[in-house]
From TrEMBL:
Keywords, alphabetical: Lyase
Highest taxon, organism lineage: Bacteria
Binding site for pyruvate: 218
Lineage start: Bacteria, Pseudomonadati, Pseudomonadota, Alphaproteobacteria, Hyphomicrobiales
GO molecular function: 4-hydroxy-tetrahydrodipicolinate synthase activity
Record keyword NAD present: no
PANTHER family: 4-HYDROXY-2-OXOGLUTARATE ALDOLASE, MITOCHONDRIAL (PTHR12128:SF66), DIHYDRODIPICOLINATE SYNTHASE (PTHR12128)
UniProt name for this protein: Dihydrodipicolinate synthase family protein
Amino acid sequence: MSAGKLNEQAKGVFIIAATPFTDEGALDLNSVDSLTDFYLGCGVTGFTLLGIMGEAPKLTAEESLSVVDRVVQRSQGRQIIVGVSHAGLENVRRLSHEVMIAGASGVMVAPPPGLKGDEGVYNYFAQVFKELGPDIPVVYQDYPQSTGVYLAPSVFERLVDDFKQLVMLKHEDWPGLAKLTRVREGEKKPGRRRVSILVGNGGLYLPQELRRGADGAMTGFAWPEMLVEVCDLAAKGKMEEAEDLFDIYLPLVRHEQQLGIGLALRKEVLFRRGAIKSPKQRAPGSSLTATDRAELDNLIARLERRLAVAGRGAKVAAE
């Protein structure tokens, strides 16, 4: 069962879950189960399903709902956010209501590519909130690298002021540290709500974003336990310790952010760690060469050595 509806106090790590497929490209629900258990074992706060890196556009409507239902049933009460972005507002509305009925805690919406200007952004989301109604919590997914749509902090402030169901910003602008600061400074104005901000981009800038007021991460790095511990240390005021831990993993954080093969690398690691039965993506998808795998081998070996030196000697990948 779900842990209730998402609200402005959300924090921690909401892992963007990969979607497992068989070698033949069929949805692998057994691996959905094992991957959910793996993420729970890493200590995640919640799940984000049907995200960009979850290959959501490759799923049928029925498959999308089956993934949501499977994770809800196995998530041990963790909150679940579901990506519902679509070119058609009716599709956004329908999927949002279906996943909330299935037990989701909220939905995430990105602006459609090609949306023009500040008023265009505001008016689009005003329509989204009207279609969804006041009872479905919404996350604004700010990912201009994908959508080509820029969200000005002033527009986000207007949306927060006007629509109480907007409870979170998924902050993925790049570079975006100054924007994060502007949003947090804007919330200090009298009468303004403070909303949750979770950050993405593979966690590439996580320590700096936490210092600037982010509440946690919403990304899919293949070692979620690092994200969890970094956020926990930051919440305890131990930022230097958090940065030291982050630095150990940074080469693999960076490596996984490669355009084109980033998801293939992430799925390969999840496969090696025993979380999924196959690293395959549903076609069309990228694949790794022998050289790619050798590079990954070397980076994982280096990570293990650095963890051992730091007194964290556990193996991080299955043999």
